[in-house]
Each structure stands twice: as structure tokens, then as C-alpha cells.
UniProtKB/TrEMBL annotation:
Protein name (Swiss-Prot/TrEMBL): Flagellar protein FliL
Superkingdom of source: Bacteria
Entry's Gene Ontology BP terms: bacterial-type flagellum-dependent swarming motility; chemotaxis
Iron-sulfur is among the record's keywords: no
InterPro entries with a match to the protein in the record: FliL (IPR005503)
Subcellular location: Cell membrane
Family: Belongs to the FliL family.
């Protein structure tokens, strides 16, 4: 009987120690990730000149939408992370970039693009699809500079 209690007490203590160590490890990992994230945000802010130098403008993309008889005319400004990303983007603009934009728009209906929420959805979809084509950096932001929906 005494051996049984001693065994249960030992197992209970080992389980408690394991739980405490696991919780400490999870907290330490979480806090370490938080510190790295906040440190990168405090880095040098982007100047307007850097934004201008790393922006590519595509004017007057006209394509049909998913609904019969509806089309869109749109101009976009692509803000890229750095000059290498901009050069990479410009090399692909007439092939992969424009084709991906047209295919994305062709799958959408007018209701999906209307309003600020629809435009935000379009730009976030384009960012995720277009970033897969870039090797030297990423698209930071897409601004819609002209928008006409028929």
C-alpha cells in the first residue's frame, strides 16, 4: 500500500513538473516572437521617395467580368519592397502579372468588386496571387488609381 502511494506521488510530481516546463517553454517562445516582431516594426520608416522609386503603375486594364455583359477598366499602382522586386516585377509585367490580373478579374462578379470592401478584397487577392511570381521581393501594397465598372 505504501509503495502504491509513493508511486502515485512520484508520477504526480513528474506530471506537474512536465506541465510547468511545457508552459514555460510555450510562454518563452511566444514572448520571443513578440520581441522580434516589435523590433522589426521600429526599423527605419519608409520615405515617400522610396515609395515612389519602388512603385510600378499599370494603366487601363480592360477585361470582362464573370457576369455576361459586364466589364471593368482599372488602373493599379503596385508598391514593391525594394528595387530588386521592382525590376523582377517589371520583367514579368506583360506576361505573368497582367495575365494573372485578367484571370482574377474574369473570375469575379461586379458585386464582388464594388465598394471599398470589394476593392480591398480585390487588392488582397491580387497581392497573394502576384507575390508567388516574384523571386526578389514582395508586393507591399496595391492602390487602385482608376476604376470604372460597366
Amino acid at each position: 500500500m505504501l509503495k502504491n502511494r509513493f508511486f502515485l506521488l512520484t508520477v504526480s510530481i513528474l506530471v506537474a513538473i512536465t506541465l510547468i516546463l511545457t508552459a514555460a517553454f510555450v510562454l518563452w517562445t511566444f514572448m520571443d516572437n513578440k520581441a522580434e516582431t516589435s523590433g522589426s516594426e521600429d526599423s527605419k520608416p519608409i520615405t515617400t521617395l522610396e515609395i515612389k522609386e519602388n512603385t510600378v503603375i499599370m494603366k487601363d486594364i480592360i477585361t470582362n467580368l464573370a457576369e455576361p455583359g459586364s466589364f471593368i477598366k482599372i488602373s493599379l499602382a503596385f508598391e514593391l519592397e525594394n528595387k530588386k522586386a521592382k525590376a523582377d516585377f517589371e520583367n514579368l509585367i506583360d506576361s505573368r502579372i497582367k495575365g494573372t490580373i485578367i484571370r482574377t478579374l474574369a473570375d469575379m462578379k461586379a458585386e464582388q468588386i464594388q465598394g471599398s470592401k470589394g476593392q480591398d478584397n480585390l487588392t488582397s487577392t491580387l497581392i497573394s496571387k502576384l507575390n508567388t511570381h516574384l523571386n526578389e521581393g514582395k508586393i507591399r501594397r496595391i492602390n487602385i488609381t482608376d476604376f470604372a465598372l460597366e
